[in-house]
Every structure is written in C-alpha cells, then in structure tokens.
Design goal:
Length: 418
C-alpha cells in the first residue's frame, strides 16, 4: 500500500489529470470500420502477461466503439528512456559517452566509431522501411514480421509484414509504457518526499564511462551529473526533467519523422511497480528486512508499506513533468487516468488483490485477482508464477498482470476514443 506520509511537503494523494476530451477519431472510413494501429513501445514488462493483445481484445469487444484495433509491438528488453530518444551518436555528439550507461546489448558501435541505440533503430526501420543503418553492427533491429487483420470497403482481410500492416491502418496511436531505472535512475535522492530540481543524478549511481561530455567537460559537478554539459548543475539537469525531455523528443519523432507512416497521437505512462534486487535503494537500517512480501514503515522518500523499487515508483514524476509542460504538442497525452494509476493498481494487486475493473467481464478478464501476498504461506512462496499479478521474479507479470495493465490503459484511453 502506498501511504501519504506526514513528513511530505506536498500531498501524495493521486493527482488527477486534466479532464480529457474525445479526440474525435472516426468510427468509419470510406464506408468501413476504422483500422486503428496500436504501436506498443516500452520495457520488456510490457510484453509479460500480453497486455497489448488484452487491451486490443477489450477495445474490439466494445460494440459502441466499432473500430478495428490492431497491435504492433516494438517492445525491447532492458533500460529505456535515453535510448529511445536518438538513434545515432557520433563521437562528437555531446551525449556520446552517455550511451555507455546502458547494458552493452542495447547499443553498438559501427565501423566508423558511431554509437547506435538498437531500440531506436528498430523503431526507425519499422516505420520508415529503411535498411539497417548500422551496417550489421547492431543485431536484431529489424521489426517482427507480424500478421494483421484490416477492413476495407469489401470487408475483412489478412496480410503480413510490419510495414505492410501499418500502412493498412487509418489511425495510428503510440502507447509508451517505459522505465529508465538502473542506468539513469530517477529517485528522491534528497529524501524530502518529492522529486524536484534538487534531485540530480549522483555520479556514484552512473557508469563511469557514461559520465564525460564530449566538449571537454568532465560531466560531473559537485558529485552530480551535468547532463547539459555546461559546467553547472541546476534544474535542467534534474533527473525527471531530463527523462521528460527524452520522452518528448521520442514522442515528437513518432509524430513527425516518418511522413504518412508517423503516428497520429502518443500516450505515455510508466511501468507498474516491481520488486527485484532493489534492497540497496533502501537505508542500510532497513536492508536486513528487505524481502519479498515483508512490510515496512513508510517514509517520505519511500512512501510504501512494502519494498517496492523506488527507482520505478518515482518515474511518475517524469510523466507528469512531460504532460504538464507548457507548449507541449497537443497530440501527446497521459495514457493512464492519472499520474499514479498504474502504480496504485499494481500496489493493490500486490497486497489486497483486484476486484474492480474498467474492462467488462464479458471480454474474458478475471472476476478478481488474489493478492500476491497470498502466495506467501508458511514462509514460502506457493505457486508464485500464477498467484497475484507478478511472476516469481516480482519484476515481470503473469496473465493477471497483463489484465491489470490492459485495464489501466483501457480506463485511460476510452475517454479519448469516445
């Protein structure tokens, strides 16, 4: 359970997003059902429990909607954030070294010494139909050869090929559900119960190879990362501000960079809460008790009664920073109904279970989901792969977890689709 701690200088109650109006998407195009492509982007947890297909199943079951929703997955394992924002980094790029902050499986170096983001190259290739720009340096950047169903004036048809299917869509929506923790973590480093301009990246948390700028500056000022490489650390270097900038840059690319194959709207949220090997993110005094299902006394910086990974929890501030930005492109939206809905629902599934839903029961979702805590009996986990929403690793999600994520997205998207 997430608890509002009296130490906080700002309320921790869920902040509702601004009322959302319908986007006015057509229900029919040229006399047939509108084909809506759902481009799914994010961390590997987005693929666990198959939330994208469950979401499409729920949307397609809504007779009042009547559109045809088709999933296009470009989900990539490992860290996200920065490596979505740009494909190629030349040796003179200001952030060239920062690529090395991520796992080596997520980037590569070509014969000319350029560094490439494998995940962004995959997006670019999927939406542009281009050949591999890395010259084979980055493996597995080609999009999957999917099959799809689409409608035209003669009825329903099937075809295959990512771009072939994409070009059959009448409307395209990008759904980003991502995390940036591990290589560029977002956290309440100051411990005051908020993530603000005071929460810079401690250099101690960043791979040394990723610290230097390429303009001759060290990239570290007073023990914090100087992301802007201007020799000072201030609000522009705050972790959540920089991450929001990555999300905006990526969103604008999806909206503008691929001509007729660009998306029409982008929706953003963060991944659900998780556990995993996050005990070092808690005070030394708490680490001996840091176990799955163990409870703790909430604090301002760690406002939960379980040992959730705070590097995931505080990322909601980046989504808030993005979606409340003055001058934000009107085609970029908050995907969940409010800034911590995904976190609150995943927390519920962990300690009390899920009994209420936005997706109708007729779609095939469970009537209820038992709490993950109920899998812990006699000091041992019992059937941890199936009980609750999280799998045994408590990072990824089982089928129930897929329904949970789909339900949060369904609740958030349906007002836009009305």
């Amino acid at each position: 359970m997430l608890i509002a701690v009296t130490l906080l200088t700002a309320p921790l109650a869920t902040e509702a997003a601004a009322a959302r109006a319908s986007l006015g998407l057509p229900r029919e195009v040229n006399g047939h059902r509108t084909n809506v492509g759902l481009l799914i982007l994010g961390h590997s947890t987005s693929d666990q429990g198959d939330y994208p297909q469950k979401l499409a199943q729920a949307l397609n079951a809504n007779a009042a909607d009547g559109r045809n929703y088709q999933v296009f997955e470009l989900i990539t394992g490992g860290d996200g954030g920065f490596l979505w924002s740009q494909a190629k980094f030349t040796p003179t790029d200001l952030q060239f070294n920062r690529v090395a902050g991520s796992n080596v499986q997520q980037w590569c170096t070509d014969a000319q010494g350029n560094r490439w983001s494998a995940r962004r190259v995959r997006v670019d290739r999927a939406l542009s139909g281009s050949a591999d720009p890395t010259g084979g340096a980055c493996a597995n950047t080609a999009p999957a050869n999917i099959s799809c169903t689409y409608y035209d004036s003669t009825g329903a048809h099937s075809t295959s090929g990512f771009r072939t299917c994409w070009q059959r869509m009448d409307v395209t929506l990008a759904l980003i559900q991502d995390t940036t923790n591990r290589s560029w973590p977002i956290d309440d480093f100051s411990g005051d119960g908020q993530v603000t301009a005071a929460d810079l990246w401690p250099a101690s948390r960043i791979n040394d190879a990723a610290e230097p700028c390429t303009n001759g500056r060290s990239g570290v000022v007073n023990g914090s990362i100087d992301w802007t490489c201007d020799g000072a650390v201030n609000g522009a270097d705050a972790a959540h501000v920089v991450y929001a900038g990555w999300l905006e840059r990526f969103s604008l690319a999806l909206l503008n960079n691929y001509g007729a194959d660009s998306v029409d709207h982008v929706f953003v949220t963060q991944k659900p809460l998780e556990f995993g090997a996050n005990c070092p993110n808690y005070p030394v005094s708490e680490q001996a008790n840091c176990r799955l299902h163990n409870t703790r006394t909430p604090t301002a910086a760690r406002p939960f009664d379980h040992f959730y990974n705070p590097l995931v929890y505080w990322e909601w501030r980046s989504v808030q920073q993005l979606t409340t930005r003055v001058g934000l492109d009107a085609r970029i939206h908050l995907g969940e109904i409010d800034y911590r809905r995904m976190h609150l629902r995943s927390d519920d599934c962990y300690d009390v279970g899920i009994t209420t839903w936005s997706i109708p029961a007729s779609v095939g979702r469970p009537a209820s989901v038992a709490a993950d805590d109920t899998e812990f009996q006699g000091g041992q986990e019992v059937d941890a792969e199936n009980v609750g929403c999280m799998r045994a690793d408590h990072i990824h999600h089982n089928t129930n977890g897929g329904w949970l994520m789909a339900d949060v997205w369904y609740e958030g998207l349906t007002p836009y689709l009305a």
